[in-house]
Write a structure and sequence with these properties.
The structure is a homodimer.
Chain A: H1 2-7, H2 21-32, E1 43-48, H3 51-60, E2 72-78, H4 99-121, E3 125-129, H5 134-141, E4 148-156, H6 170-173, E5 174-176, E6 178-182
Antiparallel strand pairs in A: 1-2, 2-4, 3-4, 5-6
Chain lengths: 184, 184
């Protein structure tokens, strides 16, 4: 597990090779089994493979043209509505205050990372993309305004594997017993 | 990977057996290697093992007494401050509107789930706990008010492994090309 986690990179260059359907299913299946608060499972995914849609998604993601080289985009969506008695929440955007939205984003991030790690496990590459705004990406995919797009995960066979980005040391991110005591 | 993901359960009953230090390090190390937006790595962890502190944490988590049976608590904290030029963000709470907080929660959830999966991989049990409020849990751990506690992960050897909670079917959570088209 730790090896897969350490070998994962953000891949921004893909081979044109298609991704096998059974691998796509495994990747989505891994997300389905994520834990969530009150088992609300507040995640939705849109599997995008058409050139037209991937081009549109790259366009609203600040024209990141490299995204088009990935044969698959998985759009990962948080749906806070199960937390509302009416089954429908308010319209949401980047500066919405609701805790329901924070909870749904948290849980969708968990499920999405399952998918990223399972992809790595299958020899596939991914990249988390979140450089877009709700108002622009939702209409492209007909997503209702009470849902929140957490990420687009690009998916495909990596053309090359970059070096790891630097990380803070363990003693810089871990405290002991309380915030005032360092690990070592 | 998919097997580990499917076998993971939320464990709410632990053996008194201590967790080996090298396993704790592996678990924290897995979080350290998580991806994050702009490589901000906006996560912090407090490793808690003392009876006194675990009792206090369980207390502010709506008196979930089962938490005390876990020999280790890992408090997982989102720190939005790297996103601010000043290096310090505003005080945050459950209904804060900022996008910086949402991004830090997302990234901390990713890192936290790494930790959960690595624990499972090592034969350990975990449970995501997020039933508390910032105002109550932060003072217990001396956490500054510009940080946000995303979760307490309980960690230890499971006393028993419960059945899986039900999940929605793949075709209920996955769409094709856009929100209006189902997978099959």
């Amino acid at each position: 597990m730790l090896q897969i986690i350490k070998e994962r990179r953000s891949i921004r260059k893909y081979l044109s090779r298609e991704v096998e359907e059974d691998k796509i299913i495994s990747v989505l299946e891994s997300a389905r089994w994520a834990p969530s608060g009150n088992n609300t499972q507040p995640w939705r995914f849109i599997l995008v493979t058409s050139d037209e849609m991937r081009t549109k998604i790259a366009h609203v993601s600040h024209q990141q043209r490299w995204m088009m080289s990935a044969p698959v985009h998985i759009v990962c969506i948080a749906d806070p509505s199960p937390r509302y008695n009416s089954g429908k929440g308010p319209a949401v955007q980047e500066n919405s205050p609701g805790n329901e939205l924070k909870q749904a984003i948290r849980d969708t991030a968990i499920a999405t990372e399952h998918l990223v790690l399972e992809a790595e496990n299958l020899g596939l590459g991914t990249c988390w993309v979140a450089w877009f705004v709700q108002e622009e990406i939702r209409p492209v995919l007909n997503i209702p305004e009470d849902k929140y797009v957490v990420a687009v995960i690009t998916l495909g066979y990596p053309e090359a594997t970059p070096s790891p980005t630097p990380r803070q040391k363990l003693e810089e991110i871990v405290y002991k017993e309380n915030w005032n005591e360092s690990l070592r």
